[in-house]
Amino acid sequence: MNGPAMRQLPASRVPVSRVPVQAGAITIAAVLLGAGCVVWAAVPLAVKGWGGFALFLAIFTVTAGALRLALIAVPVPEDSFLLSGPVRAGLRALELLRQAPWEEGAVLAVLWLEVRHPSRPWHTAVLGAALIAYLLATHLAESGAQPPVLRPHTRVLAAGAVLLALGAGAGMLPAAAPGAGSALLRLVAAGALIAAGALVLPYVVRGENQG
Amino acid sequence: MSSPAPNEPPARPGPGPAAPGTVLELRWRSSRHARRLLTLGLAGLFIATLARRPEFAGLAAPALLLLAAGRIQRRPPRLVVRARPSSRRGFEDEVMALDVTAEGQDGCDIRWTLHPGREIAPVGPPVADGPAARLTFTPERWGRRDLGTLDVTLRDRWRLSEGHASLSLPRIDCYPAPASQQTRVVLRRLPNRLGEHPVRVPGEGLEFSGVRDYVPGDRQRSINWPASTRRGRLQVNTFAAERSQDVVLLADATSDVGEPGRSALDLALRGTGAAARAYLDARDRVGVITYQWGGATWLAPGLGRRQVYRIIDSMLSADTGGWTSGASFRRLPRAALPPGALVVVFSPLLDRRFVETLRDMRERGFAMLVVDVLNAEPPARPGGLMRSTDRAARRIWRMEQEAIRFSLRELGIPVVHWDGAESLDLPLAAHTRRPMAARR
Q1: At the top level of CATH, which class does the domain B246-377+387-432 belong to?
Q2: Strand B322-325 relative to strand B235-243: parallel, antiparallel, unpaired?
Q3: Which fold has domain B22-30+74-175?
Q4: 8-state DSSP, B18
Q5: Are residues A188 and A169 in the same domain?
Q6: ipTM higher than 0.85?
Q7: Does A173 lie in the same domain as A124?
Q8: Of A122, A142, A162, at which residue does a domain stop?
Q9: Same domain as A153, residue A56
Q10: Which helix (H) or strand (E) holds B295?
Q11: Which of A60, B231, B254, B298 has its CA at a distance of 20 to 30 angstroms from the CA of residue B45?
């Protein structure tokens, strides 16, 4: 019923492959990036009014997201009829932890923290880059994929970084004239940049696919 | 019958004819990653518009660009999947493999997730990546088992959308892990059929029986020259004849008591498998009768290694051999229960009708041996507190069991106890040393 045992290659003939990045390292990176985003958006600390709540929300959602990533490999039994009450409650909590969109909440809370500060374009641009890195690291950690799967993203991310810098630059431009009109003008300029990027995008992606 | 190798993963199948694939329709939807990017992009644009701060529009730009790039990607609407277990038959705790391959994924990443069926345990992670993968599992308990379902998840190059499909996996037959048995119980009177058991009748076997005077017609090579020299006339060696016997294994499937994995039914099937293998190795004809509520399934005695699989198949399902209704075996045909056969019974002896059937068979002259596979007692009251009535009930139950076994011994049916952990040779030792007489 059994076939012959699987043939083992001698040690010298075992193909040498690049050591894959450990899933734990990616998870830690995601957690650190999330915590860094919260800190970056929160300083200088302004906990008055809704600021305190926004900070609490950001810390809570980033922590819950980290817990979700840490417990992602915990198996869940299919039948829970014979389990004790505490175990069933724990499984229910684990299910909630896995299904709730913690990272979306963390993004919203961090942006809320950032928008409470007066305009600081380059600070916001760095936060944008960190948030993208946080989301990509979270995706890698939860899917168990290795960083090379993000290779197709390189050109698009580079184009996004250019737009990020242009957006920050647009934010630093002095207003042409006081009033709502000049702010709207700057906004339209930023939107036009994004639209231009979207128009260029098909050519960038086509080149990536061919490569 | 090849012995199971519990810890040895099966080899990869060689290049044979490709199994027909299953076409799976994929259900595409946005990934969690895409939903997060969309949240970031929309929130950035919303804040930029509301707060009139263009840097937030720039913050939204990378996420929106990634989403736009993902929309350009083509997604295959369907996928051809081939899933083939390394074998359709296996033993308990034998490591088996499921080889899966996919075609038509259009450059998407594939993830396979095995959701095992009942009593199927994955060995190692139940998740594998790549267009060709191998998932290992082990059946934990005998029976016809559904392997479960296989979930296929395709991710596009941008990781923004996921295609999902499920595939129902085939069934496998899981045989009970046979116990160990090397020795055999042999009857004193065997049918006149060539076999491997030496008997007292002289014949053409290998075992030396004695010497006698030479008579014309004896072969010259059988002359015993030392004896001829001593006695002064030609002496020839005589040898014992070698015969085979009919063995009918009787498995009692009416009671399944005890902890799962070591219950009476588990031990009965494992013992039956071990005995079938031991007797078939000695060229005996072995058949099986599985006694159930309301009747019995049977398989006529036969020879050869394939008979082991037939016997276990007949115990796992009733689609081989025959069926007889009623608790008595009087209606069984002679082919199923040949006269003069050795009947080896594996039973916890809890069903009174079955015990009566054994007495009836004994009175009809069958040589029988009962292997008692009862290793459990009535469960204690929840909470562990035993009242005096509980203790009295348990004592009465034990005395009843002892009385049943005593009555069988009085009828000339030896009863030996087997705990399932030790080899079957130990409880049978008293009956394998010398041929067993069938008293009438």
Answers
A1: alpha beta
A2: unpaired
A3: Immunoglobulin-like (2.60.40)
A4: P
A5: yes
A6: no
A7: no
A8: A142
A9: no
A10: strand B295-302
A11: A60
- Location of structure tokens 């079957």: B424
Return the domain boundaries, chain B. 22-30+74-175, 194-243, 246-377+387-432
Q: How many residues does the structure list for chain A?
A: 211
Look up residue B324 and give its two tokens: 């007889």
Pair A116, A29 in one domain: yes
For the segment A75-134, what is each residue's pLDDT rounded down to a tens digit? 777 777 777 888 888 988 999 999 999 999 999 999 999 999 888 889 999 999 999 999
Structural domain boundaries enclosing A102? 21-142
Spatial distance between the Cα atoms of B324 and B303, rounded to a whole number of angstroms? 23
Write phi, then psi, for B239 (nearest 5 degrees).
Answer: -125, 155
Cβ neighbours of B154 in A, within 8 Å: none
- A27 and A127 together in one domain: yes
Cβ–Cβ gap A108/B39 under 8 Å = yes
Residue B152 has pLDDT above 50, yes or no: yes
CA dihedral for B380, B381, B383, B388, sign (positive or negative): negative
- By CA distance, what is A168's nearest residue in B? B55
Tens of pLDDT, residues B51-63: 888 889 889 989 9
Q: Is the separation of the CB atoms in A164 and A133 below 8 Å? A: no
Longest dimension (CA), chain B: 131
Tokens describing residue B323:
């069926």
Q: Which helix (H) or strand (E) holds B36?
A: helix B32-51
CB contact under 8 A, A125 and B59: yes
B286 neighbors B325 (Cβ within 8 angstroms): no
Q: Looking at beta carbons, which pairs linking B211-217 to residues 24 or more positions away fall under 8 Å? A: B211/B235, B211/B236, B211/B237, B211/B238, B212/B236, B212/B238
Helices marked H in chain A — which ranges?
23-42, 50-70, 85-99, 102-115, 121-143, 154-172, 180-210
Chain A contacts of B91, Cβ < 8 Å? 1
Q: How far is B33 from A101, CA to CA, in rounded Å?
A: 11
Q: What is the mean pLDDT of residues B328-355?
A: 86
% residues pLDDT > 90 (chain B): 36
Nearest alpha carbon to residue B27 among B167, B166, B164, B168: B164
